[in-house]
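Course assignment 3, question 2. Fill in each field.
Student: A.L.
Task: Predict the tertiary structure for the chain below.
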Amino acid sequence: MATKKITRIEVQRWKSASNTHGLVDIGFDGLFIQQFPPDDREPMHVLSMSEADARLLFVLLKSQLAEFDGRKARSQR
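Answer field:
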């Protein structure tokens, strides 16, 4: 059985945001680090970013959701 690892993704810079066919794509530069999990933690992926990057991500997601809402018919809002 293969040993499971944690993948830590450290966001370095947001580059773009777009949406098509119900999916939001966020482009970013990042550092991907493979780690072995501590014995008391289950393997998982972790996305790490600064507070400033988290706030920018929030703004990007909000604008993409506004675009989705703008495309819906009034009766679906």
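Instructor remarks: DSSP finds one helix and three strands in the chain. The CA atoms of residues 19 and 67 lie 8 Å apart.
Grade: pending
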